[in-house]
Amino acid sequence: MVKKMRLAFISYSHTDSDFTLKLYHDLKRNKIPTWVDHIDIPKGKDWDVEIDTILRKEKVSHFLLVLSKSSAKSDNVLDEIDAARERKIEFIIPLLIEDCEPPFRVRRRNRIDFRPNYDAAFESLLKCFEEVETVETAKATDEEILSKAQTPTVEQLQAAHDPNPLVRLVAGPGTGKSFVIEERVHWLLNQGTSERSLYVVSFTRAASRDLRTRIEKYCKLNGHGDILQISVSTLHSLALTVLRKAKALHYPVNPQVMDEWELENIFDAECSLELGRTPNRCKEIRLAYEAFWCTGEWNPPNYPQPDTPITEEERQSFKAFHQPTTRTYSCVLPGEIVYECVKNIRAGIIEPVSLLEMQHFIVDEFQDLNVIDLAFINSVITSGATTYVAGDDDQSLYFFRYAFPAGIQDFMLQYPKATQHTLEICFRCTPKVLASAQNLIKNYSDPKRIPKSLHSFYDSLEEPIQGVVHQWSFQSGISEARAMASSCQELIAQGVEPRSILILISERRILLPTLQKAFSDLGIDVELPVGTRFIDSNWGRYAYALVRLACDKDLEDYVAHRLILGLPKGVGTGTCYSIRRKVVENNLNYLDIFYYDRPNVFSGREMTAINQAHEVCEVVTKWDSKDTISNLAARIASIISIAFKDENAGQSWLDYIDQSQLPSDMNLDELRLYMGTDSDEQQALIMESVYKRLDKEIPEKGFLPQHVRIMTMHGVKGLNAKVVFIPGLEQDIFPSQKRMRSPGLILEAARMLYVAITRARAACILSYASSRMMYNTFEHTRASMFNLYLGGRFERRQTGLSNAEAMEIAQAIQLISSDK
After folding, report:
1. Per residue, what are the HEC states of 388-438?
2. Nearest-angstrom CA–CA distance, 17 and 15
3. Which residue, 11, 23, 3, is CA-closest to 52?
4. With b meaning 16 or more CB within 10 Å and e meaning fewer, what string describes 406-415?
5. In angstroms, rounded to a whole number, what is the distance separating the alpha carbons of residues 655 and 668?
6. Which is nearest to 676 in space by CA: 200, 259, 377?
7. How many whole angstroms separate alpha carbon 231 and alpha carbon 216?
8. Nearest of 422, 417, 406, 449 to residue 170 by alpha carbon
9. Element holding 809 (H helix, E strand)
10. Residues 310, 303: contact at Cβ < 8 Å?
């Protein structure tokens, strides 16, 4: 006969949080349902109401009082004791953790003394629960554990609250690194840290935007309101801010950072005309400079040498082209910003900490920083700012920016007074998925790898959820692609949401066309990798430039003007190059030629292009950033059609607005942000913000497109999916021929595959083909060198997932579905 369900309520002073969290998790590991305020009170709820409610529930059986000098004097604790006595909770147990005078209300209660020996005292406490029967089954316990999968662990909170001036956090995939950073910001604000003195950086624009959103949301839920003055950005952006504040930027206006599309279609294209080399050769020369800016040396380790080495003459020619071009267009290349900042720091011209009034510095994705990035970080550390670095050397990617895993590996050697924390519970991957990834990384790791004992949260359940891993081989790339598509079709039929399926590819030019056709043949919508967006077409980029210009009231976006000048039909790179040269030679300002009388130095063809751009700029600069799509969409379409002499160009813009389901009252500033982000998640957040501003009801399914996602491996850090497919695991594709030249690049490819596998939560399907079309040539292929170390045997397949196999994956997804 069941007397009552048991539940332990912990009453404590917040100065005793570390002991309380350890107690909480130890009780949970022993299957004792436990409640503590800062973990179990839902965000946004009133604490007093919630505590009063829980203490008056029938199922509370044990009131555990963490007894210390602080709690004995706490009004909140005394109120909770009164509520427990009023409710006649039978077990009111003081847990003595330091010498103190107990409150009068509990002096006659037998206490458990935790001072001499925690473990012995905890065993005594467990015996108190044996007197209360329970009706919980193993399944119910698992459900409860799953619902708490994102409950902060002791290790996470200890890492977040470390007061040491230097801290290294090593956090494997899915271990809660982002939460620790969010909690640390919250904790620092509670300690009285000024928002203006707190700086957070992450590696990519998408990652920093996501981190900013998460920090803002977390801090708002924890009572901080809108945190508008905390800087969350990329390191490049922060370095640009430092240079700007130091007035060390030698440009007409604040420069724009060119994105990849602009680098290839403006910078490399014009460089080709200047140097008399192909655009691809100019890109190789630019990348050689990027290597120098990232490392401070020519031909650094892991630099992928082009087939024809870069000559000293080409370097000098590039330098002569680079400086006047970037100053004319008031733009910078991504790799040069931090280098310029560090050069100024080393010369004693700039001191970032005093310039920014920085007190606390948090660096995410520390393993992806290069030598010059690390020099910037070192200057911050040596100037006395409290610095917190977080990352995982097993996830060090971005060789093209010369990511330097030794930075995080050697951190404790370089800064011996630093403290360190390691998170080792993976809340993302099921055990089979994690085992495959770990088997790979243990066989492809450098000698300085940081030791880890990563294990899956789902393995700790009463009934472990193992997950699914398949390893398949196919006769051809076509049959592999068809198997991917039919597998997705089967999973969707089993109720798996399309967006929770992710296909990761290493070489888009080889793998993407075949996959697109296979999915199209089955009528399955897919979301394609970045680089296939509307703004990556000439028509789309022109539309984006118009929107940027409309929002550019200070007329600082010189690159947008260059796009408006050069993209229309009949203009081209040659005309733009010639105009730029004449601007430099005649000591003109580039922007002035769009708005003022031009000197008689331009040819008739050049004047035609300038006048056409002038007319467009005169119209667009009269618009306002708060003008709406409904007012301007048709006008923009007309301008695009005229510029390209093609009605389809303008229609493509209207189709983009329609297909993206953008609200007619979205303003141009919001549209600019939406078009400029390369992340669906960020676009969804922008849409949500627009709907809230308009007081419109947010759709039940949100704004994320319900499509199967196809992405490149480089673009998935920070993401996860219920099911991940990784096709094309063949030698010369992954790793590529270029990587095979360098042992370091092979190790980086292994880390990339490790990251790809650990995006999967319930299931991962890895595959290769024995033949496929490669650059329009039929080739026989062989298994990747990594396939031997994925922890299983590759099975020859003709088809994709069977109904039973898809059902098994769907069941695994259902089991982990309460862990959001």
Report:
1. EEEECHHHCCCHHHCCCCHHHHCHHHHCCCCEEEEECEECCCCHHHHHHHH
2. 6
3. 11
4. bbbbebeeeb
5. 17
6. 259
7. 11
8. 422
9. helix 803-816
10. no
Separation between Cα atoms, residue 287 and residue 306, nearest integer Å? 10
Q: What tokens does 195 get? A: 């928002």
The span from the CA of 812 to the CA of 496, in Å, is 11
- Asked if 790 contacts 797 with a C-beta cutoff of 8 angstroms, the reply is no
Q: Which two tokens stand for residue 514?
A: 């075949």
**Token couple for 224:** 């901080």
State the DSSP H helix or E strand holding residue 722, giving kind and residue range, or none if neither.
strand 721-726
Q: What does the pLDDT read at residue 132? A: 52
| Distance of alpha carbon 205 from alpha carbon 676, whole angstroms | 11
Q: Which of 597, 591, 596, 607 minimizes the C-alpha distance to 552?
A: 591
Q: Which residues contact residue 597 at a Cβ distance below 8 angstroms, ignoring those fewer than 6 apart?
A: none
3-state secondary structure of 45: coil
Q: Which two tokens stand for residue 146?
A: 């799953």
For residue 136, the model assigns a pLDDT of: 38
The CB-side HSE value for 724 (13 A sphere, CA atoms) comes to: 30
Tokens at 721, concatenated: 């999916």
- What is the distance between the alpha carbons of residues 327 and 325, in angstroms, rounded to a whole number? 5
- Counting beta carbons within 10 angstroms of the beta carbon of residue 777, is it exposed (0 to 12), middle (13 to 18) or buried (19 or more)? exposed
Residue 195's pLDDT is what?
Answer: 95
Nearest by Cα to 446 from 96, 27, 747? 747
* pLDDT tens digits, one per residue of 7-51: 889 999 988 998 999 999 888 888 788 888 878 777 667 777 778
User: What is the C-alpha to C-alpha distance for residues 233 and 236, in angstroms, rounded to an integer?
Assistant: 8
Q: In whole angstroms, give the CA distance from residue 61 to residue 75.
A: 23
Q: How far apart are CA 329 and CA 560, in angstroms?
A: 9
Cα–Cα distance for residue pair 393/446, rounded to 1 Å: 10
| CA-to-CA separations, 590 to 130, 248, 563, 585, 752, in angstroms, rounded | 81, 21, 13, 12, 42
Distance, in Å, from the CA atom of 442 to the CA atom of 172, rounded to the nearest integer, reads 14
The structure tokens 């330098």 sit at 319
What is the pLDDT, as a whole number, of residue 609? 97
DSSP string, 742-790: -HHHHHHHHHHHHHHHTTEEEEEEEEEESEEEETTEEEE--B-GGGGGS
The tokens describing 747, both together, are 């190790």
pLDDT in tens, 232-285: 999 999 999 999 999 999 999 999 999 999 999 999 999 999 999 999 999 999
Nearest CA to 467 among 422, 437, 443, 492? 437
Other CB atoms closer than 10 Å to residue 764's CB: what's the count?
30
Return d(Cα 179, Cα 181) in angstroms, integer: 5
In this structure, what are the phi and psi dihedrals at residue 427, rounded to the nearest 5 degrees?
-90, 0
- What's the distance, CA 516 to chain centroid? 26
Task: Look up tokens 């910037």; give the residue.
Answer: 376
Exposure on the CB side of residue 19, measured as CA atoms within 13 A:
23
Q: Provide the β-strand partners of residue 386.
A: 360
List the structure tokens of 373: 């990035």
Q: pLDDT under 70 in the chain at which residues?
A: 1-6, 43-44, 56-59, 131-150, 399-400, 530-532, 818-820
Please name the residue ranges forming H helices in 296-410.
312-328, 336-346, 352-356, 371-382, 406-409
